[in-house]
Amino acid sequence: MEKKINAMYFSATDTTKKVVSGIAESIAANIGEGLIVNIIDFTLPDARKDPMSFTKDDVLVLGVPVYAGRVPNVLLNYLNSITGDGALAIPIVVYGNRNYDDALIELKDILELNGFKVIAGGAFVGEHSFSRILGKDRPDEKDITIAREFARQIAKKITNPDYLTSISVKGNTPYRKYYMPKNVDGSPVDIRKVTPKTNSDCIDCKLCAEVCPMGSIDHEDVSKLNGICIKCGACIKKCPAQAKYYDSEDYLRHKYELETEFAARREPELFI
Predict the structure, then answer these.
(1) How many CB atoms lie within 10 A of CB 118?
(2) Which residues pair with 89 in a beta bridge?
């Protein structure tokens, strides 16, 4: 077995990283002792400057978070620059316990259109980027146990060429529109232009500027934005002084709505 296992992910708050790395490492362990996983983290802007290419000898576990029920649109150009040339692929989407809607089928379609053979796929739950209580501490040990068993089944499929069949996943084509929150009157609201604020607890450590996946936080004055905010939660959740926050009424109402209406635990969904 001369397969090369690759774990590739966009993971602003490390939840997608945890799921994808866990699956890839377990696949490697089940295929052969000492097999090393190649890690490709494309969270930060510099990592998305050059396209990636794979071959028929590669297995790619590719993970992205779900934004508004879809693959994040800011990643589409980069994802479409990745070529497979017959490589095997496992698309993984990680969502904040609401729903992954059409994100998984969209990621699967991207991979197949770019020359990959998709042999498995999964939707896992991670702590929501807006919240510290919705999907709190997930993926947890139960999720990781499920991921390991999923990886064992994938490894079995990879090592038995007769079983290397393509799969179907849950989702709609054409894809549904991006999920939009509503205000108190039930009218859709657009929170895309909402940006984080910085309070007086800021210690100017610059960590927020370093972890912003859009490179939007000004390194000289971290209270300023020089680009878009995708509400990934990195600057808020990784701030050691808890100095970053949102105060948009529409954003906070949506956060509360998510935390109350979607509190019931959802489990991973697997396709193999």
Answers:
(1) 23
(2) 60, 118
Q: Which segments of the chain does DSSP mark as H helices, in order?
A: 15-31, 76-79, 103-113, 141-158, 207-211, 234-237, 249-261
Q: Which of 55, 60, 64 is nearest to 24 (CA)?
A: 60
Closest to 62 measured CA to CA, from 119, 101, 100, 102: 119
Chain-centroid distance of CA 252 in Å reads: 22
**Taking a C-beta distance cutoff of 8 angstroms, is the pair 30, 60 a contact?**
no
C-alpha to C-alpha distances, 47 to 25, 104, 181, 208, 215, nearest whole angstrom: 22, 23, 31, 17, 12
pTM over 0.70: yes
pLDDT in tens, 183-192: 888 889 999 9
Q: Which residue has the tokens 């770019």?
A: 114
Residues of the chain with pLDDT > 90, as a percent, come to: 90
Reduce the DSSP state of residue 149 to 3 states and report it.
helix
Token code pair at residue 251: 């954003």
Calpha distance 108→91 (Å, rounded): 6
How far apart CA 73 and CA 10 sit, in angstroms, is 13
* Contact (CB, 8 A) for 66 and 58: no
